[in-house]
Task: structure prediction
Amino acid sequence: MKTTIDQKAPSKWVGAGFLAAIAASLCCVTPVLALVSGASGIAATFSWLEPVRPFLIGLTVLILGVAWYLKLKPTKTAVDCVCDDEKQPFIQSKIFLGIVTVLAVTILSFPSYSHIFYQHTNQFSIANGADSGIRQLRIDIKGMTCAACEEHVKYAASQLEGVLQVDATFETGTANIRYHQFVVSQDEVVAAVKKTGYKVTNIEEVPID
Result:
């Protein structure tokens, strides 16, 4: 009598791993979706997920690891080693599991390449003798959780005519925005940041470096 161990990676494991990867990256993917859809205010919708992102990443790795183990573990007998993917439903094949794994890794690493979706095209220049109107704001922002959030804030502010430079850092939750006060007002700069959906908690004019 032949004894075998089922090598099929249950689709529920594969699906759970993919969903965990999506959940782990929602806080980073949403800003780009907001940019593409034109609904800038939804950028911070899933920023509350950031504290549990490491857990969700670990969960993704664990679940997909189990799926691969179930798929690749050896059989008990050499007689039953012929287990071609062609004889299995595609959703239970190694090819499908490989595709899901690649997609999961791509989603999880999204913050590292999110900047390619943003093009800061504002090329405002200062006329000779007009530099006396340059001001710099330091804005404390709540809700930025990754590089994609930084890029979203930078993109929103840099679209204003009169904005010269925007630096945003999610680690400190701040943005430094240099602008020409005779072209764009402080209120307009702050309003552009607020439209992203992130919460402005403090505004301070600081000396220009």
